[in-house]
Specification:
Blueprint lengths: L1 H25 L2 H12 L13 H19 L2 H21 L6 H25 L4 H50 L4 H11 L3 H14 L4 H10 L4 H16 L3 H30 L1 H29 L1
Length: 310
């Protein structure tokens, strides 16, 4: 029974941390500052609120929040919120390199939830354990089925964007060599795709197909920048668009961007190296230091206990 209570407590703690962290990210300090600026207005008198009555300062604001809450519950606003959530989910899928619509991902997520619940339910019924442990297994299965697809998508986004960032300098170098050899930008994209493979090469092939279908190169490059969350790639696409507008040779832009990308990657590696000692503090305190203390202080403690016991 103690193990069941302890397990449920730990499980409730992690669920609470996940829920509060999710809502905490939505109302961060930046949004609070933006809302504060909107309320007071730019250049407004900071002491103007003191001149208002108690009703205007507190009661009216509370009633406005309540009315806004009830307004958001209407079917029209619900449809708008669902549409916004679908658009955000589709962007996350695109950032992860998963070519799937929001409805398809929601269907897959629901199937995973049902499969996880049924699997852990059967596992709990088949295992010869107490009923409290069975309930805990079912709860763990339900939570794993709900949170599993969400965190998988987040890890997929992070991994996909990191692969693009790692492949970006080499692909830009090869693209610049092809352009310098006399090939056009469109043919250079195909040549790069023949020599290299990876997520960034797939994005370049999508740009090539869009150009072949009649979309202007500027719009294709802007779409490339919008479907990624990498500042270096956004800068590269903006530089190419600007070079096309101003008539600057693309090869000059490619050389400058390639050197800048390698410098940026070097700085990122240096930043990760500086963060490594700080990240190692927690494992050292939690796992290494207790073992060292036991090895060093263990014999001394045993001798002291034996001495006082005599």
């Amino acid at each position: 029974m103690q193990f069941f209570v302890l397990s449920v407590t730990v499980l409730s703690f992690f669920v609470a941390v996940i829920i509060f962290s999710y809502f905490g990210k939505k109302s961060d300090n930046k949004n609070k500052r933006i809302n504060y600026i909107k309320e007071i207005g730019v250049g407004a008198n900071p002491y103007a609120g003191l001149e208002q009555s108690f009703y205007q300062r507190y009661v009216k604001k509370a009633t406005d929040r309540i009315s806004k809450t009830f307004t958001n519950l209407t079917p029209k606003n619900k449809a708008q919120r669902n549409k916004a959530k679908d658009q955000q989910l589709e962007r996350q899928l695109r950032l992860a390199g998963v070519f799937m619509s929001a409805s398809e991902f929601s269907s897959v997520k629901l199937a995973i939830n049902l499969f996880s619940l049924v699997f852990f339910l059967l596992l709990a019924l088949l295992l010869p354990v107490d009923s409290s442990i069975k309930v805990l297994i079912i709860l763990l299965g339900a939570i794993a089925g709900i949170l599993g697809p969400i965190y998988f998508l987040r890890f997929k986004v992070t991994g996909h964007q990191q692969k693009i960032r790692d492949q970006l300098p080499d692909a830009i170098d090869l693209l610049g060599v092809c352009i310098e050899a006399g090939l056009s930008f469109d043919i250079s994209l195909l040549k790069v795709s023949e020599k290299l493979k990876g997520p960034f090469i797939d994005e370049l092939l999508i740009v090539h197909r869009e150009i072949q279908m009649g979309r202007p190169r500027r719009e294709a490059l802007q779409n490339l920048a919008s479907v990624t969350d990498i500042p270096e790639l956004k800068t590269f696409a903006s530089a190419l668009v600007q070079a096309e507008q101003l008539g600057i040779p693309i090869i000059n832009v490619m050389r400058i961007q390639s050197a800048q990308l390698r410098l940026t990657r070097r700085e990122l590696c240096r930043e990760k190296g500086m963060k490594a000692p700080i990240k190692m503090i927690l494992p050292m305190i939690g796992f290494i230091f207790p073992v060292v203390f036991i090895i060093l202080m263990g014999p001394t403690v045993i001798n002291v206990i034996q001495t006082f016991s005599k």
